[in-house]
Amino acid sequence: MSNSCEIYFHVGTGKTGSTFLQARIFPLLEGIYYIPTNRYHKVFLEIEKCSSSKILVSREFDQQLEREIKRFSEKHPNTTPFIVFRRHDSYIASQYRRFVKNGFTGNFQAFFDLKNNKGYFRQEDLNYKRQIVLLKKYFTKEPVVFNYEELKENPHLFTQKWAEIMGCSLKSEKVNWQKKHTSYSEHQLKVIKQFGKIINLTKRRVFKNNLLHFLWRIYLGSIRYSILHLSFLAPKNNKKLISEEELEAVKTHFLKDWKYIQSISTSTSIQTLQP
């Protein structure tokens, strides 16, 4: 790899459209070599053997952010990091629903304890300004910050701006703009949460052997998705998975942090696109 090669690293965060970008957008970019998530485990070798003048790496992080960017920056400090943020209350609610779907049985406070900071996710995990500081600390290039809401509102302009910054192109007519999948309903998640108290549905490694681990994942996944798809047979429960008061408290607590992110976000408005 030439020392003049430009590297762009999409580092996160989770639940901000990463799967859509990785599956539908990045493989269709022209003028840049894309290293997908399933090859991230050998990313340095991929970069070393690449002859392209531009490389895009994508592997979003949340709680692992500092560890991973430190590791990456030790070999490639001149990387331009890309990061997408979602408003704190929406982000942590989406994370909680994902964890419940995957076997987490605790309530929202056990997952994110705003008062005592003893949950699975900690307050520092939602400190977006701190994440920007880390990116500036480990990389010599300024981070490019995006707002998830703009991806939702106008994915065409969002991806156009992304490609423009990297100096490559995207043929929009080839993109599948349909939603990849819809979120699971409150009822489905409440049902699987109750089953999770009887059966351990959490993703975990039981076997060291890779083949056995793969078969175990299929087995566990089949149970999980069977429960989700048959949840309509279970009686309704009107209690909310997350109360509006809990989410409003998160929104209020991180309001200053969110305003900071809004102030530094790259606008995807058509007026800002440069010729």
Description:
With 275 residues, this protein is an alpha/beta fold. It folds into two domains: 6-87 and 126-179 and 260-272, P-loop containing nucleotide triphosphate hydrolases (Rossmann fold, 3-Layer(aba) Sandwich); 186-233. Helix content is 44%, strand content 11%. The protein is built from twelve helices and seven strands. It has helices at residues 18-25, 43-49, 65-73, 88-101, 108-111, 128-138, 148-153, 155-166, 186-196, 210-229, 244-253, 255-264; strands at 6-12, 29-30, 33-35, 54-58, 80-85, 144-147, 169-170. The protein has a five-stranded parallel beta sheet. Strands 2-7 form a two-stranded antiparallel sheet. Strand 3, helix 2 (43-49) and strand 4 (54-58) form a beta-alpha-beta unit. The two termini are 30 Å apart. Residues 270-275 have low confidence and may be disordered.
CATH arch. level architecture of the largest domain: 3-Layer(aba) Sandwich
Helix content: 40-55%
The count of DSSP E runs of length 2 or more, i.e. the number of strands, is 7
Average pLDDT over all residues: 91
Inertia-based shape: globular
**Total DSSP helices:** 12
Strand arrangement, major sheet: 3-4-1-5-6
CATH class of the largest domain: Alpha Beta
- CATH superfamily heading of the largest domain: P-loop containing nucleotide triphosphate hydrolases
State the secondary-structure class.
alpha/beta
- CATH topology-level name of the largest domain: Rossmann fold
Number of domains: 2
Structural Rg: 20 Å
Taking the alpha carbons of the first and last residues, their distance comes to 30 Å
Report on the biggest sheet.
5 strands, parallel
As a percent range, the share of strand residues is 5-15%
Encode the helix/strand succession as letters: EHEEHEHEHHHEHHEHHHH
